[in-house]
Amino acid sequence: MSADSIVVDGVTKNFTLRYHRSIKDITVAKIKGQAVSNTFKALDDISFTIKQGESVGLMGLNGSGKSTLLKLISGVMRPDQGVVKTRGQIAGLIATGAGFHPQLSGRENIFLNAAIYGLSEDETAAIYDDVVRFAELGDHLNSPVGNYSSGQYSRLGFSVAVHIDSDIFLADEVLAVGDKPFKKKCMEKMEEIRDSGRTVVYVSHAAGSVKRMCDRVICLEKGRLVFDGDVDEGIEYLHYGEDDAKGSAKLKQLEAADSALGAEV
Ligand SMILES: Nc1ncnc2c1ncn2[C@@H]1O[C@H](COP(=O)(O)OP(=O)(O)OP(=O)(O)O)[C@@H](O)[C@H]1O
Known about the structure:
Layout: E1 4-18, H1 23-31, E2 37-51, E3 55-59, H2 66-74, E4 81-86, E5 90-93, H3 106-116, H4 121-135, H5 150-162, E6 168-171, H6 174-177, H7 180-195, E7 199-203, H8 207-213, E8 216-221, E9 224-229, H9 231-239, H10 244-261
Parallel strand pairs: 3-7, 3-8, 5-6, 6-7
Antiparallel strand pairs: 1-2, 1-4, 8-9
Helix pairs in contact: 3-4, 3-5, 4-5
The structure holds adenosine-5'-triphosphate (ATP).
Residues 15, 42, 60, 62-68 line the site of adenosine-5'-triphosphate.
């Protein structure tokens, strides 16, 4: 039996929604007795364990809490209640552009990003050529990252992340912004990562790529864990929710995401 790789136990994350932006608006609202903010649970009492080597698809509608959960697993955010435990080095792309300095070039950011993962200059130099080859950014590698398109950001971030020798690989937004050939290359690289025995958590709306990548699916709905189990059953769950209207909305979203991803992925 493999060791536990990620343990999420009773995790809740609250966010505050502010209704007014300026001090004047807030003061006026307070005088009128109107609410100025509201707290809501982006994640509500989530618990699951992922074993080393499992490849888990994290699915659910927009705003259901997938990215927030990934941020808690990666450690960039802390839960308000509960605990998240992880074993070993974590790498991945959790948000486009995270860990980049906008005024530095792509080249410089490769060293910066690798340093954030704990790599020395020599260790980064050893993977540098592979990172550059994978990113395929051409001359843009010498321009400030602040001028990059979201796809170029994603290429650079994904390229560094896949070349880090990690135990856990987290992937969010990777395939959402890349073009078709890059998406295909990313999927192949992620399959390689999965087959090497690393734990993968893959956030996606695309049922096809989740089927290809994952051996388990976790579904979130409005911050609650509503399904944890077999991939086909999880996708089926998303297709046909508790009522028909909701089910068909989910189906439409999955189909749109799949066609955006391209038939071959
Ligand atoms: N820093 C924040 N402050 C306030 N609200 C936030 C913050 N981050 C996320 N949220 C809210 O928390 C909820 C969950 O967001 P999250 O990004 O985790 O959803 P998601 O499932 O990844 O969605 P998508 O499929 O659109 O990427 C949303 O309602 C979002 O608006």
